[in-house]
Specification:
The complex is a heterodimer of chains A (452) and B (226). Chain A has 452 residues and is of the alpha/beta class. In chain A, 35% of the residues lie in helices and 31% in strands. Chain A starts with a strand and ends with a strand. In chain B, the strands form five sheets. Chain B has a six-stranded antiparallel β-sheet with strand order 8-7-17-16-13-14, with no helix packed on it. A five-stranded mixed β-sheet of chain B has the order 10-9-11-12-15, with no helix packed on it. In chain B, strands 1-2 form a two-stranded antiparallel ribbon. The chains are: A alpha/beta (452), B mainly beta (226).
């Protein structure tokens, strides 16, 4: 059965001013599940866990606790594998069903810390286990946990993330702890997640590991569709500036050109509970007044529950151009709110990148700008941390590493309140003032919901 | 079988087409083979949209500044018919700017001061922290590398400051006054001129302000109006 999801379109203005130069426009594409979840989705889950020396003590203890919890929560239809890595990797539990949970938990208990961190060996073993358990009716996922900087194998890790993506396996990457003893690189985890269509999480305290493992498993069991990719087919003159995932968490997505006018973004898996929202930042070409279908977006996805592959949903993005400057000046409050959050995330992330690259004056200035945005959004704690770090940057020339890890993740969550809003009132929060007289057919164009 | 001619771009489309494949125009109300009836209205001109807080030039229609994140005026700046003389003309804000941020992080753009008659200030070389003063009383200064053989003597010679290695041309860019405002213009340089991380179109002057970062090839300078 097709129709598991439809795409809802919203633009940031009801109408765009007819100008002779290109102009910016934001399009929000909300991929919404249309079917409710019946039973938990069967999973093929691999835990790829860091047991390097620095994990010793509470971190290792809590990690083992969390892994045992996963064993408890899986059903007989599920497959689990557990891989640990230091300088090399060991398959503690090979891919298989949970015939004997007690034995598996015993093996997890026996994990001890040792050696350094060579993450690619762990990822490689984890991927091999996942490939053995792959089937169309199971959702495969790698949960990667590390507390340290991997040793000279970042390229290998990224290549493995690409392999995961090709196999339809997304990676949830967890950075455990923050600061000196937990010097994992947020940018590497972010890149692994983006490439594989997954997500990354900063777990600042070891006692939160169980909760993160549990929520990862819950989202996995609530998977509606896998291998989701979106193609945006644009008319001549429309050019994409950036594509963001805005819910469940904010991420900048890499987009690939396919053909001369089309771009594609990979979205990984789609959850029943949240769907995904994608924000495209576009440059629109000059147009005379009228309405134009400037792009068409479609998603392709597989449905593990029914075993159907390459299902499709399509939507048209119709843009109205007008000469009425007053009409064109109206923005859509709901979109503006989302854009403002993305802007705050982008500014802070850019500032941290600039700080890491040694461009201190620019990073300081931008971090202060981020603080202002965050304050305006009412995110007092994040704003406070951003201004503290801006000051530190100015004085010491670098951001505190622990703050860097926390901050990169924190602003990804800026749209979390938005999800709840749109769940209770999908698309209802926008005001639709009546068009002024003499403006033909302005209705329907700010918001469109057509799916095939 | 008749076909529809898209009134917007003139491309033919099959009868029944809803949108033009070429430009996306909504064809539902276009009669088959009706004479193209493009709207007689002229298309509005757009001016560059400079951020009211940091002055960064944004693309028209931007709602948040690309550089500092400031919320910009809700309306794309539009200018009536006459061709704007320069790409980034700064207009006095036509609309009240949305309430300023509680703690403005960057200096707000100053109210238009008296028209300039000579280029003020100096350039700071980022790499070496060397200050290069702009010769006083000038309406135009050329930045480049001195080359006595070709008879090229720029007002500001960057040759002693690593200009050659950094890819600075002999006549790379110029600062000029036009209508009382200060501009930076790339002189068709090989390695390009970048103003506040925006590459300039050759021979298109862009507004220059206090504190702006100028990059000639790889050489980074900061302009100070004081």
């Amino acid at each position: 059965m097709a129709g598991e999801a439809h795409i809802h379109v919203a633009l940031h203005r009801k109408a765009y001013l007819s100008m002779n130069t290109p102009q910016q426009a934001y399009v929000l594409l909300e991929i919404m599940p249309t079917v409710a979840i019946a039973t938990p989705q069967a999973v093929n889950f691999s835990l790829v866990l860091d047991r390097s020396g620095s994990m010793g003590g509470e971190k290792l203890q809590q990690m083992k606790e969390a892994a045992r919890l996963v064993v408890e929560r899986l059903s007989p239809a599920d497959l689990l594998s557990v891989v640990v890595f230091d300088d090399s990797a060991d398959v503690v539990v090979p891919c298989g069903s949970l015939q004997d949970p007690a034995t598996i938990q015993g093996k997890i208990d026996a994990i001890q810390e040792r050696g350094g961190t060579h993450m690619s060996t762990g990822m490689d073993s984890g991927l091999k286990e996942l490939l053995r358990g792959q089937s169309p009716d199971r959702v495969s996922r790698m949960l990667l946990l590390t507390d340290g900087q991997t040793w000279e194998d970042q390229e290998a890790c990224l290549a493995l993330a690409d392999q995961c993506r090709q196999a339809g396996i997304s990676i949830n990457a967890l950075g455990l702890g923050v600061g000196e003893d937990s010097n994992w690189d947020p940018r590497l985890l972010e890149e692994l997640a983006v490439r594989s269509g997954g997500e990354w999480v900063a777990v600042d305290r070891p006692d939160k590991v169980s909760a993160v493992f549990a929520s990862t498993l819950r989202s996995l069991q609530g998977t509606l569709a896998t291998n989701v990719s979106m193609t945006m087919r644009m008319v001549e003159g429309v050019s994409p500036r950036a594509v963001w995932r805005v819910t469940p968490l904010i991420s900048r997505l890499g987009h690939q050109a396919v053909g001369s006018r089309d771009i594609q973004v990979f979205l990984g898996d789609l959850q029943h509970s949240s769907g995904q929202s994608i924000l495209a930042d576009l440059l629109l070409p000059p147009r005379k007044p009228g309405s134009y279908r400037l792009l068409q977006a479609d998603i392709l996805y597989d449905v593990p529950e029914s075993g159907l592959t390459r299902q499709q949903a399509v939507v048209d993005v119709v843009v109205t151009f007008t000469e009425d400057a007053a009409l064109a000046s109206q923005t859509q409050p709901r979109l503006m709110n989302i854009i403002e959050r993305v802007v705050a995330h982008k500014l802070q992330t850019q500032a941290l990148d600039e700080a890491a690259a040694g461009d201190i004056p620019r990073a300081t200035q931008r971090l202060r700008a981020a603080a202002t945005r965050l304050l305006e959004l009412g995110e007092v704690d994040m704003a406070e941390e951003a201004s503290q770090q801006a000051q530190r940057l100015e004085q010491v020339g670098q951001v505190d590493p622990a703050a860097m890890q926390r901050m990169r993740y924190a602003t990804k969550r800026l749209t979390e309140a938005e999800i709840q809003d749109s769940e209770t009132q999908p698309g209802q929060s926008e005001s639709t003032p009546a068009p002024p007289e003499g403006e033909p057919s302005q209705q329907d164009t700010g918001e469109q919901a057509e799916s095939a | 079988m008749s076909e529809i001619i898209c009134p917007s771009c003139g491309m033919p489309a099959p009868t029944g087409a809803i949108f033009c494949d070429n430009c996306g125009f909504d064809l539902r109300h276009v009669a088959p083979s009706a004479p193209a009836a493009p709207s007689s209205a002229s298309v509005a001109e757009a001016a560059g949209t400079n951020c009211p807080a940091c002055g960064h030039p944004n693309v028209p229609g931007a709602v948040f500044c690309e550089n500092c994140g400031e919320e910009m005026s809700a309306m794309p700046a539009s200018q009536p018919a006459s061709q704007p003389p320069l790409v980034a003309v700064e207009e006095p804000a036509p609309q009240p700017v949305p309430e300023p941020a509680p703690a403005p992080v960057v200096e707000p753009v100053l109210a238009p001061a008296a028209p300039l008659t000579a280029i003020p200030g100096s350039l700071l070389l980022r790499m070496t922290n060397t200050n290069l003063s702009i010769p006083p009383g000038k309406q135009l200064v050329v930045l480049g590398r001195e080359d006595p053989v070709s008879g090229i003597f720029p007002d500001i010679d960057l040759d002693p400051h690593g200009g050659l290695e950094a890819g600075v041309g002999r006549q790379h860019a110029q600062i000029l006054i036009q209508d009382g405002l200060l501009y930076l213009e790339d002189l068709n340089s090989v390695n390009g001129t970048v103003l506040n991380r925006q590459r300039l179109t050759p021979r298109q002057p862009a507004l220059l302000k206090d504190g702006d970062e100028i990059r000639l090839g790889k050489l980074v300078l900061a302009y100070s109006a004081a």
